[in-house]
Amino acid sequence: MPPNPDHGRMNFALPPDLVSYLSDLDTFIAQKIAPLQARDDNERFFDHRREHSRTNWDAGGLPRDDWEDLLSQSREIADEAGFYRFCLPTEYGGQNGGNLWMAVIRIHLAKKGLGLFNDLQNEHSVVGNFSDVLMVREFGSPEQKEEFIKGRLEGNRVLAFGLTEPSHGSDATHMFTHAEKTTRDGVQGWVINGGKMWISGMHRATHCILFARTHGKPGDAIGITAFFVPRDAKGFVIESYEWTFNMPTDHATLTFTDVFVPHSAVLGQIGHGLPIAQTFVHENRLRQAASSLGAAMYCIEESIKYARKRKPFGEELSTNQAIQFPIVELSTQAEMLRLLILKTATEMDGMTQKEIERDLGDKVSMCNFWGNRLCTQAADRAIQIHDLNTSTDIIVSGIPLSSDSPLLTSPGRYRITEGSEEIQQRKIAAYLFGYVGPRKAELSKL
Amino acid sequence: MPPNPDHGRMNFALPPDLVSYLSDLDTFIAQKIAPLQARDDNERFFDHRREHSRTNWDAGGLPRDDWEDLLSQSREIADEAGFYRFCLPTEYGGQNGGNLWMAVIRIHLAKKGLGLFNDLQNEHSVVGNFSDVLMVREFGSPEQKEEFIKGRLEGNRVLAFGLTEPSHGSDATHMFTHAEKTTRDGVQGWVINGGKMWISGMHRATHCILFARTHGKPGDAIGITAFFVPRDAKGFVIESYEWTFNMPTDHATLTFTDVFVPHSAVLGQIGHGLPIAQTFVHENRLRQAASSLGAAMYCIEESIKYARKRKPFGEELSTNQAIQFPIVELSTQAEMLRLLILKTATEMDGMTQKEIERDLGDKVSMCNFWGNRLCTQAADRAIQIHDLNTSTDIIVSGIPLSSDSPLLTSPGRYRITEGSEEIQQRKIAAYLFGYVGPRKAELSKL
Amino acid sequence: MPPNPDHGRMNFALPPDLVSYLSDLDTFIAQKIAPLQARDDNERFFDHRREHSRTNWDAGGLPRDDWEDLLSQSREIADEAGFYRFCLPTEYGGQNGGNLWMAVIRIHLAKKGLGLFNDLQNEHSVVGNFSDVLMVREFGSPEQKEEFIKGRLEGNRVLAFGLTEPSHGSDATHMFTHAEKTTRDGVQGWVINGGKMWISGMHRATHCILFARTHGKPGDAIGITAFFVPRDAKGFVIESYEWTFNMPTDHATLTFTDVFVPHSAVLGQIGHGLPIAQTFVHENRLRQAASSLGAAMYCIEESIKYARKRKPFGEELSTNQAIQFPIVELSTQAEMLRLLILKTATEMDGMTQKEIERDLGDKVSMCNFWGNRLCTQAADRAIQIHDLNTSTDIIVSGIPLSSDSPLLTSPGRYRITEGSEEIQQRKIAAYLFGYVGPRKAELSKL
Amino acid sequence: MPPNPDHGRMNFALPPDLVSYLSDLDTFIAQKIAPLQARDDNERFFDHRREHSRTNWDAGGLPRDDWEDLLSQSREIADEAGFYRFCLPTEYGGQNGGNLWMAVIRIHLAKKGLGLFNDLQNEHSVVGNFSDVLMVREFGSPEQKEEFIKGRLEGNRVLAFGLTEPSHGSDATHMFTHAEKTTRDGVQGWVINGGKMWISGMHRATHCILFARTHGKPGDAIGITAFFVPRDAKGFVIESYEWTFNMPTDHATLTFTDVFVPHSAVLGQIGHGLPIAQTFVHENRLRQAASSLGAAMYCIEESIKYARKRKPFGEELSTNQAIQFPIVELSTQAEMLRLLILKTATEMDGMTQKEIERDLGDKVSMCNFWGNRLCTQAADRAIQIHDLNTSTDIIVSGIPLSSDSPLLTSPGRYRITEGSEEIQQRKIAAYLFGYVGPRKAELSKL
């Protein structure tokens, strides 16, 4: 009995042009990227040897050049084919992709598994992220845009993002790095002292967007300023690279000792650097959630196939409830989470940054923490299911039990980099219990 | 930066006419049902005294008449106001509501908590369920429709659904009750022997739709036939009523000893009764999932309010992470599950029964088992949070710690009545691993 | 290869005299208590009808007299047989049982299921608890011992324990009830004002041991005094009884309005009542943990037997991993928890109250919260397993799905009454992280 | 009130001579092993560089020689000091340690963290395991004992254990490798064909104890025979080494093509090899459980210290319930599991192999699966707690976030190597539900 035709309906299907875009992307990957991956034993960067192939153990554990060159090459191909700049505004050669489309693309690519087309270990993808470009576009002077956006897209400017410090935890208002106004050699500017940690990409960056306190006291939201600091500035030292579960490292520890920058190095308004740092936090969290979901779906799918294929005593492994039920649990979550991500992305697309923060911050954090946890659990389960009958099938089926499994460790990383699970939960709780957000007034009256 | 206007978008907002319908429903409840509940100490049926007020302990634990009369009265009011028959086809005075609208209404009502407008303990609601009517409409003869649909809506026919038996578990093909063709007093018909258990509503029913094996052997899907058996048929005995966590009982245990019915009592085709029994299994499972979700949301909301209001040592209870984080977990699930229910309902609205079974059975089961479990967990958490500081607030705030908490026990019941959690998971697994459903061919080739 | 005979060994076997005591207890129950339970339809107090049989719905939900009289009768039989006073000192006719033996006995009795010999709903047991006697023995004057210990054992004094209030939460130092020195009719004494809630046994008590602030301010540990207040004191009113999941209620809400007691009513030192209240907190928590463990073991055992017996489609239910694995999880926990309870009890037996608080408080709380949670989970699982194939076996096998399942609700109660799970975890954390306890100095230096 | 002195008591304290032995072991490690670890940058094998320092990436991922030489050196020192052979019988220079003492030692060493004294990654320890020696002692001929026990202890015989195959899963009776009687060059013997996988230590072994079917059919317990096959036998090929999460690898994949061995190579009785393979399965599982527990305790302790030390915003991290409560859960489990391990070890010490299998197999599996899972969870939580405020403290405090964290990956390995979690649970279930073990008769009658 079809329902009343006069009743309003809903529609949960992906828009047809997006479905078609995913198909084009698949074709492009199959025709242009997969052959490059298959060439010259480039598979060594993706199979069980990949941690070793990517890591220059004796140079601080940094990525090897041949590995990063291959990534660059694939990005250039994707740029020529029109995919790489998808999320950029049209003025920079992009298509102004938006959050919904980006989320669907991130899920789609991560669900395909690991490859030269997409690699969660270092956020490489044929469809690029450009938070740095968007940040300069939003807050930069015309000169800064000219230098850093144009330069970035042409490849002669590379920006690192210098916010985190060893001891301030998740609350950047307690940062220790500080800058004072000064004049050096007749040039008005700032002298910076302090240190940063876990700064990604510094080994190839030409500049660091550095956040430092210029006035106010620890805990003040106002008083933090952003600076462009060139890599070769005097007093700017890369002390070390931090080794993690997930090698190679590109997590630099930096110190700044009497580093001078001219006033033109200031990004945005003096003392208002923190909002710059937080501009794309929601976009990044959602994008990460989408990638985690995709990776979880990959693990689920591989587990299903393996459990059907594997017949330890003549009977399919998948006939065991101990195999079936955990996959049912994971799969149900993946179905549900996918919808929350798509809904949240859709709503973000119609809101300003300020509205997103006020009305949608809890939903973004829900997507993020659930996605990252789900992915870790799905990877853990996939390994457990494959291990029940240890075999080379494990490698063949795409979950290489190497020391650098992107399945295990990247989501693990995700559970930290955009705010740990606990930080996300704290944020959601603040909305739910009305300490911030739309229910603040209502619940405070209780 | 708003996304590319040429890109297709999605829309997750409820249709405006549905939002408006919910508002009308709220107004109706406030104006017509709430006053009736407030009258004549009718609150005794809903506050901490409700188990005792509803139960006739000394008459087998059946519902008391004044309780069931009050329910009837509220349904009549709702029928006059045009709400009660919402899901029925227009030919029977309904609005042909459909699965999406019904799901949204079920969530909405359960989220309001417990009251004369909606009570999960016995599936009473001002917006009715009519599985029996729809079943007769689909499979009945013109005479049966005349008698049982018209009679049902006028109140002189009440149908019970007689499928479950004590020992066949969840697989009705192993049922023991059987019927043989016979002629009695010159009338062609059937003689039925066997027994049924957990038959709801039998104490007020005029007829039981009884399922019995007429040919084939245990385990055969074919060979089960449905009969209308009048309550006063000779040999039809209500042996007892089963007491449960959730009193009053209306779960009768029945025996049939040489019960004769004429051939006109057969519903549908001989031997094809099982599909009749299963006709609305997906609709029922989804409706139940929606009610469970609504009840979970109620528990979450009450917990949030209580934790803000309660200040055990001058500080709000809600400042504790041990209070916050479990609510964050539950709330995230509620957000996600809501979308999966709405999506599944929307898809069901565009499909035939056969298509639903083939392509959507796993999603329905996902909604069902997750919803019922979520509800139990939310109720458990609500009780735990309220209990942290035992107080009369518990009753005031709508989670009466009485011996018949609908919060605790109804969802518990839900975890059984439409197929236990394990049964749902088994079904989902069958789809996921390709033993049934759309991936059957693909995954069997592995 | 047997190990080196010179090496010291351990011994985890129960002492033989304790094993033999359990056997004597079983014999006594079989010969003296079981027949009484079987007589005069006394089974109505234990089968599915028990909530109704025990509850006087129309008198505030209090226990019926015939129910409490039957309990008294069984206790008298047990006293004559020498079991009832087991834990009391020999001077009061007991055997000075100690914590280890009491824990083993509590586990043993609860593991036998529900009966007139032991009922967790109201802590009735043929082997009694006597916290009140021990409290008066420890802190009372000779006159008080004469009146309240002798009177209690002879049955003409019944004490309720009046500590909890509606709004101070788990921290009694914030209590609102207060007493001031006064002289009335020439008698020096105290006038008490305030209120108490959740006071068990008040309906049959002759006196309430009431805790009230006599000096100091909210939050001070010192300044709370204990008083014997007779039930018939002027101004002492039982306002109501709180209905819970677990009927009948014996949880009174009390008010005290200008209630006068003479100075001789003071128990212990003025201002030092709080340590009196806390004297047996560890003993009670451990005893409760033992009962919870026993009940969990009962649920596990019933589930195992049912799953072996039940053959829904000709195959034993227990062949399903979805049945097996949850029982494996529960059973492993029961094995482990049993040892922690026995070890903790053994260590308590060799320590003073002060040493227990300093060195063992975390272990006691570990036993308590894990035990109570395990019991709830085991009951939940038992119900789920039995429900998979709803059947009368459920009642037959001893887990009656009645509205007053001791399996479900008593442990639920346990999760509150001696400090909620969260309170226990907070306490354990304080020891683990060195905020109190033996590691305080070491960890504070970090 | 101390308990009745006539009552039998229990004793859960470690025997004093064992406590004293642990202390001697600590002294030895501090004086002899720690200095060696501190020398010549040997720390590189244990700090964040250790995966790279240990792995010869370009030689199949095998352990580097300097790494394995260092391990040998430490074992020699331990042998001289009288610790290494602790578990061996006195006839071979050991002390016949027994299961209880070995379990306590394993817990103690793993609890100290990672070092040259004990390394779970490859089961290296200053107190050695000697399953191979005990196996030859139990089943070998006098000549075999002379060659393989004496040779092993002198260092000129090294044995690998060749049971597992790529596709038979956990049931070795389905192995594919087979041997036929033959005469070659006048010597009676056997010709072996087949393959093995995940064979540890093969890269340094002189012989493989190879299990092959000599008669019977797949699934038969009888018909599998054990052979000593020299590494240089013709047709015996090491095909590859499998890379895992946990590098370096020492997991060889072997093939056997017409490999001839003389009759004297047979270990034990022909056709009765399977019991040989299973001889020490319980001892190994328990030892592994003990190591897992120790590692879990290490993670818990490090987390506690870090959370006290770390003050992100001036307040200790450990004041958060989201930090405290998970540690409370883990710590409670560690306390409980420790007792079950000690009890099981104590009971094993008084039983024959046959009795252990019949009466204790479920307890051993309980220890094993719970221990391995607990360890994984404790490591995961330790990482999560440390990550909340990413910092160099992570490395300093002994949980180096390197790509080869023994905390994360070794227990992960444990969840596989002695039978996966699922295999353990299946085994426990078989006992609990009476399919095997002491309750078989009782429960089969239901």
TrEMBL record, chains A, B, C, D:
Q: Where does the record place the Acyl-CoA dehydrogenase/oxidase N-terminal domain? A: 40-155
Against Pfam families, the record matches this protein to: Acyl-CoA_dh_1, Acyl-CoA_dh_M, Acyl-CoA_dh_N
In alphabetical order, the GO MF annotations are:
acyl-CoA dehydrogenase activity; flavin adenine dinucleotide binding
Respond yes or no to whether keyword Oxidoreductase is given for this record.
Answer: yes
Record's CDD domains? ACAD
Q: Which cofactor does it need?
A: FAD
* Keywords for the protein's UniProt record, in alphabetical order: FAD, Flavoprotein, Oxidoreductase
Q: Where is the Acyl-CoA oxidase/dehydrogenase middle domain?
A: 160-259
Q: Which GO terms describe its biological process?
A: butyrate catabolic process; fatty acid beta-oxidation using acyl-CoA dehydrogenase
* Record bears the keyword Oxidoreductase: yes
Acyl-CoA dehydrogenase/oxidase C-terminal domain span: 271-430
Q: Which family does it belong to?
A: Belongs to the acyl-CoA dehydrogenase family.
What protein name is recorded for this chain? Medium-chain specific acyl-dehydrogenase
